[in-house]
TrEMBL record:
It is found in: Cytoplasm. NCBIfam families: xseA. Its EC number is 3.1.11.6. GO terms for molecular function: exodeoxyribonuclease VII activity; nucleic acid binding. This is Exodeoxyribonuclease 7 large subunit. PANTHER family: EXODEOXYRIBONUCLEASE 7 LARGE SUBUNIT (PTHR30008). It catalyses: Exonucleolytic cleavage in either 5'- to 3'- or 3'- to 5'-direction to yield nucleoside 5'-phosphates. One of its GO terms (cellular component) is cytoplasm. Residues 5-100 form the OB-fold nucleic acid binding domain. It comes from Hujiaoplasma nucleasis. One of its GO terms (biological process) is DNA catabolic process.
Amino acid sequence: MPKYLTVTALNRYLKFKFDSDTELQSILLKAEISNFKRHSRGHLYLTLKDENSQVAAVMFSSHTKTLNFQPKDGDKIIISGYVSIYEPYGNYQVYITKMEVDGIGDLYLAYEKLKTTLQAEGLFREEYKKELPVLPKKVGVITSKTGAAVRDIINVIGQRFPLTKIIVYPASVQGVFAKDEIVKQIQKANNDPMVDVIILGRGGGSIEDLWPFNEEIVARAIFESKIPIISAVGHETDFTIADFVADKRASTPSHAAEMVVPHHQELMEKIHQYQTRMNQALFNTYQSLKSKYIHLVNQNIFKQPLRIIQNQDLTFGHLYDSLIKNNPKKQIEKNQEKVKQYYQNMQSSFKHQVEINQHLFKRLIESLDHVNPLSIMSKGYAVVNQNHQIKKSIKEIDNNHDLSVLMHDGELLCKVLEVKGKDHE
């Protein structure tokens, strides 16, 4: 029977071959860094590449102590190390023991040059950033139609605020055609008057994969967009040119979706807070009007006519309590007729009080008229005085005295010829 190998045995044999090859156990390699990651334990994981090929590499923390620079994507380096196989997965990779800078990578140079140019033109300035809508009706999403990014965005928005509509503008997000497709879809979304905000992004990747978001035509299309754009390239630490130009930057597509719409529960809490504030404002307004009302009715000129209004203050209090406990709009509609009737009753009571006062005033005038001296004198009576002293008896008057007789329509100046008493015949 043929002799079969296990996968483990095969990988172990290949590792032995690699480790036994002296040419592979001491190499000097010139390459450019891509997909750089730093592990929490200090290990460095990266891809070494040139124009045509790439290979995975690792530098353990025991060797990173010799570094005299901070490695990053795009750096051109010279490394010393060896090649071996990671037996559990059968992947061969370069194990770096020493790393030195050979120069700045072409992509990094292009990135810095474009960044400097656009920054000088003002494309990154905050004054040009557009505010995101509070509650968008439609969200445009520019990304790959088959990637994880679009699924994440749809799921997050659906969970947070299901009423928001999503329209996907599919575009390649890596490769030579990506930049043109992204620009085309930005322009297309801007032609839809219903789109309130745009999410542009992808789910992360190497610097080469993300390069369309560092292209100048993409940056200018973002800047010229009339609709606010959130850049969500999916890189926690590294920034693309699109991140600087966009109105907002999100670390991941899911984060962008969270920025676009509020959670429906949070929205309900805010509505409750606004309702509480509205009720408090209504109560404060009522208290203020009540104080003004009390001050007004305490004025002397209004005390008597408005006494009925004072007695109805408790009714207003009950109406207010009912207004707070129930829907204000419905209660207002329900009580409009009551308020109208109350107002009419108040007018009627006020009018009745005025009529009573007018009648009392008329009677008082009549009473005064009865004791008015002029009214009595009009019946034939007169007032006699001498030297401005009223004479009440003939005993106070002598013959030849000059007297003044005051009648209701004038005055008589007289001289006494003779004084006669009641008993005179």
